[in-house]
Amino acid sequence: MSPAGPVRLLQLSDTHLFADPDKRQAGVNVRDRFNRTLAAMKPWAAHAHGLLHTGDLVHDESAAGYDDLAAQLATLGLPGRVIPGNHDDPRQMARAFAGPLITTGRSLVVRDWTVIMLNTQIPGAVPGALAEGELAALDEALEALTTDHVIVAMHHPPIPVGTPWLDAIALQRPAALQARIEAESRIRAVLVGHIHHPVDRPWCGARVISAPSTAADFCPGAADFARGEAPPGFRWLDLGPGGEIDTGVVWATHG
Q1: 78 alpha-carbon distance from chain centroid
Q2: Would you call 72 helix, strand, or coil by DSSP?
Q3: How many CA atoms lie within 13 A of 169 on its CB side?
Q4: What is the DSSP letter of 33?
């Protein structure tokens, strides 16, 4: 990809790994599905500029799980950022992702774009929220911006996605974030995980975009928990100098 072309980011989410490589979550072997996704990502990584993981990295919060995931993601050779989901241990994440390429840092700057990472975890709970400290950090990052365009990345979606049981455990009290999205025209999208299937919806002049899970697929529209049949996958985003976002999903259909 030429320097004048778009900024390409790769997003993966909800890997739900365990220390035990044979452990299953929601009926699927999560390590096998992650390995398939990583193999599919490697050709894309050669032409990408950054990597984002939007939460639920390790289901059992084990040190071994985080260490293994950090080592595997490092093979992509991309600078990246990771944020916790409701299943994560932020302390183990910070230890395992201490750099040099992939970290738990607040932001990632690539040319005309800044990605701001927000932690929506409520310790011990499944739904998410943005604490006052996270909102203050967002305000500080926006105040210090040196780029023309912004992506906010977090785990819990701030809008209903039409799957009732997931909508009940999404971001609580999203009004504070909504006010900031409405006030800041440079925010082009909010990237999320948590729902285990891809979504791309308009919101407040921006977009809410999710990646599929590399673990179990969740059936869109289901009233109660239901596993879908989609393969694991990841999302790519091509970010243009004028704020344009072209995006799609790559499914890891082969083992």
Answers
A1: 15
A2: helix
A3: 20
A4: H
Q: Please tell me the distance from the alpha carbon of residue 188 to that of residue 82, in angstroms, as a whole number.
A: 20
pLDDT tens per residue, range 173-207: 999 999 999 999 999 999 999 999 999 999 999 99
CB count within 10 Å of CB 238 equals 17
Task: State the residue for tokens 């890997």.
Answer: 15
CB 234 within 8 A of CB 10: yes
**pTM for this structure?**
0.96
CA distance 182 to 110: 23
Residue 126: both structure tokens together? 């499944």
Burial classification of residue 144, based on how many CB atoms lie within 10 Å of its CB (0-12 exposed, 13-18 middle, 19 or more buried): exposed
Read off φ and ψ for residue 13, nearest 5 degrees.
Answer: -160, 155
What's the CA gap between 152 and 120, in Å, rounded?
Answer: 12
